[in-house]
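Illustration 12: diguanylate cyclase.
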Amino acid sequence: MFFSWWIDALDEFIRLPSHIQWGHWLESGPMPIGLILLTLGIYHWHREQLAISAQMEKRERGFREHRLYDKLTPLGSADYLKRQLVVSLEESLCQQQPLSLVVLDVDDFSAINNAFGHAEGDEVLSALSHLLVLNLRRQDLLCRLAGDRFVVLLPNTGESQAKLLALELQQAVASLAHKTRQQGERIQLSASVAVVMALNETPDNLLRRLNLSLARARRPLTRTA
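Figure caption equivalent — predicted structure in token form:
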């Protein structure tokens, strides 16, 4: 295209004989080819910009969603649980299906941190999270609410079935005998559980009722190691 412009500029100063036809072709021929190449270049540049934009959006979404997962266990965080509760509460209301929540709290967990250190306590929580996942159904969602407290979201689950699942989780925790890394001692665990049925309420209010139910269900226990 620039070549055509250059030939056109030369034509203002240099006059070729009328019987020479190739000058006309040199002036007009490269122009459409240049336009085609320019169009292809703009098209590929646009596609490249779209790809870069998609990559940046994906990376930003990854950074944003990374905060929704627990740093210690392969579970969702409290923020992730609240987001899922918004969706689940709406679905439960629209579909007229029950929605249950189970909270599980390890009894006297601070004694493990005091006796064996926080690193060992983290190992216990990691092992416990894997154990709980293995005892849940595919549609259930397990999140770590805070510290040694876990919450299970049970869609399409009535109160009686939720209590049965809570009991199974409690028994699974009691069957776990964690062996410490340094001393090799076995830590016998126990947990308190509580169940609430979701109503037409906000996630914060539902979690508040769940914690109150757990507080009523707790009892003083003595740990043996």
